[in-house]
Write a structure and sequence with these properties.
disordered N terminus; about 5% helix; 7-stranded antiparallel beta sheet; mainly beta; 10-stranded mixed beta sheet; Chondroitinase Ac, Chain A, domain 3; 3 domains; Immunoglobulin-like; about 50% strand
Length: about 425
């Protein structure tokens, strides 16, 4: 039985990447997006952070949208007495717990005879650690304080939140409540403290709020804490502590949830059972593999993330483990018959990969990668069935196996 050409090419690529790898360093967990980096409730004005859009709108009304389609301004007929040049300028977001860019709507201080709609489109990164029901829009007044008017509508299908206003200013999207940290990377046996923070105490959606720096939520707003995964969660009121198991868990990442004792009514629709989620990946540094449900084996390794081919490689003596994929550095990928998304484990006279059988057929399972951190590349994968080839026999034999993997490796590029 011949070893496939693809296997040789992947091993060669892995060896090249490993030659660039640096020695292991002690684990320093990333700080994450530390909330409340700006001191006090009065914040600096945002700095220009993108291309402005300009459009002429008159008494008949009209719409204008940012280049990235993040914000949409709808001006109804009769809101303006004469034609004006309306602009949207992206800014850095200085609002407490702000998400994405803020936007300066010009001319600054413009007032309207009828309410104007401001709609922010959001994505999964904006609700990470929070919930769509807890997204709010705020403007910065002339004293540098952020004010949040009531939400006019929330469309969770189209992922957009809308308010109405009669004036232009600097506007931003922010989280009213969230769990911190929203995601974490931990070694087996480590522990982590979590907290639920708020910038406003969301209650009556008709009420206007002053946005403050993130602080612990009121205990009355917490219903319960819950853990899906292994380890021990010790809940308090607005805080909890998670102790990771001393082994690599089967459910990884572990999921810590906070169920809020709160419901919100927005434009006549009631939103109940609001939950905040923190994902905690438990893994030693390196590439860790489990064959057929047996003991985990960890390979020291690194990650080479580039526009051509992304590679994660681990090495232990003369054994090599690698995953390779083309495309975005973060995402979910299916194994491929070609070289686009591959797995290989090279042992002395025993090789495993993401193809099996005489066909060969492509293995089931997924590769899930998070490359959003500047230092770490993390993720999990499953290869089922994985194909193996025993080269110890005069005539190599093939068979199938099951492979699970988790990795937490440093960038080497």
């Amino acid at each position: 039985m011949r070893i496939t050409l693809q296997l040789f090419l992947n091993v060669l690529l892995a060896l090249v990447v490993l030659s660039c790898n640096s020695p292991n360093e002690p684990l320093i967990p990333p700080p994450g997006e530390v909330p409340g980096e700006i001191t006090g409730s009065i914040t600096p004005v945002g700095k220009v952070n993108g291309t402005a859009v300009t459009f002429q709108i008159g008494p008949s009304g009209g719409t204008i949208e940012s280049v990235d389609h993040r914000i949409l301004i709808s001006i109804p007929a009769g809101a303006l007495a004469s034609e004006q040049t309306i602009s949207i300028q992206p800014l850095t977001n200085q609002c407490p717990a702000g998400k994405g860019n803020a936007f300066r709507l010009l001319p600054h201080g413009t007032t309207f005879s009828k309410p104007v709609s401001i709609t922010f489109h959001y994505d999964y990164t904006d609700i990470s650690g929070s919930a769509s029901e807890l997204l709010r829009i705020a403007y910065q007044d002339d004293k540098g304080i952020w004010q949040s008017p009531p939400v006019k509508s929330l469309d969770t299908t189209a992922s957009k939140v809308t308010i109405e206003t009669t004036h232009f200013s600097d506007w931003a999207l922010f989280q009213a409540m969230y769990i911190y940290p929203t995601k974490s990377i931990m070694s087996p046996g480590a522990h982590l403290q979590l907290a639920v923070l708020q910038t406003i105490d969301v209650g009556d959606p008709k009420e206007k709020y002053v946005v403050v720096m993130p602080d612990l939520v009121y205990a009355k707003n917490i219903d319960k804490w819950a853990l899906n995964g292994e380890g021990v969660l010790t809940p308090g009121q607005s805080k909890a502590e998670y102790h990771a198991p001393t082994w690599i868990p089967d459910i990884n990442p572990a999921v810590v949830s906070v169920f809020l004792n709160k419901s919100l009514t927005i434009n006549g629709k009631e939103f109940k059972d609001i939950r905040l989620v923190s994902n905690i990946l438990v893994a030693p540094e390196g590439v860790s593999l489990q064959l057929d449900g047996g003991d985990w084996h960890t390979y020291a390794g690194g990650a080479n993330i580039n526009a051509t081919q992304n590679v994660i490689l681990g090495k232990d003596g003369n054994e090599f483990a690698s995953v390779n994929w083309k495309g975005e550095p973060t995402g979910t990928f299916h194994w491929t018959k070609g070289p686009d998304v591959t797995f290989n484990l090279i042992k002395p006279k025993m090789n495993y990969q993401h193809l099996y059988g005489l066909g060969p057929s492509v293995s089931g399972g997924l590769l899930i990668v998070d490359s959003s951190d500047e230092t770490w590349v993390t993720g999990t994968f499953a290869v089922s069935p994985a194909g193996w080839m025993d080269l110890s026999k005069p005539r190599p034999e093939i068979g199938i196996s099951s492979v699970k993997g988790v990795f937490r490796v440093r960038r080497i590029n």
